[in-house]
Design a protein that fits this description.
By secondary structure, the protein is mainly alpha-helical. The protein is about 70% helix and about 0% strand. The protein contains 16 helices and no strands.
Amino acid sequence: MGENTRSKTTHRDTDDNVPVWAAPIVMVCRAIYLFLIIPALILIVVAFGLIVFGKSSATNLSGVINMINMLTTLGFLAWCIGRYDSFAPGWTGVVLAIAFNYGGPYAVGQLQNLSKLIPQLPGNVPAAAANIAHTAAARTDVAAGFAGQLLFALQNLAFFLICISIVRLLIGFCIKIINSQIASAERHRSRIDTSNKETLKPSLIPKCWQMSRCRPNVRMTCPNYIDRINCWKRRSGCFCDRELANYLVNSVAGGEAQEIMDMQVAAGGTQAGGAATVQGQLAKIRGHMKGVEKRSWSLQKKWCHECPLFLEHQEYKYKNLHWLSWVATLAIVGIVYSFFDQAYTAMTQWLTNEMTALVTQHVLPENFKPNESMNSDFKYVLLGVLTLLLLGYVIGFTETLFLKWKV
């Protein structure tokens, strides 16, 4: 009776590829992130109502804003950890950070138009009575201070979101690359016959005779190996050419014939006996191969794209050359950086002009400085985010190029 090992398996709510030490952290974050984000959203609605209808003071609302910042940051961090298998938290954080950083001044200005707590900053204080003027000026100072605090809180939140998002996206891309490598290695191992230990070490771009399906005894008599020409270049291989498959069967010892019958079956042929010498058979098969070399790739690729040797060859190419995705991404960024810099400068200039106009119209506080929210540091943060996005597409294109299109 076999031992039931299934009962000893540890079941977890998380995936099997999560390390044991990280599983409790992921489970806790997955359980609590909604309980942090939802209260933050409720507080945002409450604070918005209190500001618009003037039902609270600026001092009381400062604590509410700090609480919203804390809950949002912790909730977003827990979301990123709990949903580690998705890129959605990272890209959501990038979008929100850009919106808060660039849209914050405009949102605060619009909120001032609606608010009774944060009144429009008067250009001229009525001088009918000194006490009224003093009260209006004091109220103006409080309003300006609260508007600045609200704007500062939005920009701080944008900073935390963009930092967490970049780290999350970097980890996500690394996990994607590692998982792709593991999957490729598993596919490769599934094709290897463990009884065959005499395989050649594949080169950077491996040849057909370096694949795991190529038997040592067969290899030594194969014209492709003798001439060092890949079977897909010669249009004649043991899995697609019946004549070559029959020749290889007749060229090896009887004990090896059974091991390569799968080649013969895949090629659609049957074992053909004969009394021809090895030299005569080799000359005959070479004459046959010269004829099939003229076959176009458009006719040959159907067989190659279904051949296990060619598929393994493509997986090795992807494994050994996928790092070029990083080089290509950096090259693209270097080429288009000047255009990005011009576009960013034009965008920030337009936003600065718009915010300056809002300050002139007393929609934004008079002490608001548009240039401070358009600092150069954020330009490089935005460039890093766009580079990560581009890297994801380039890696995906490289995988498609080698494993789907089989270039």
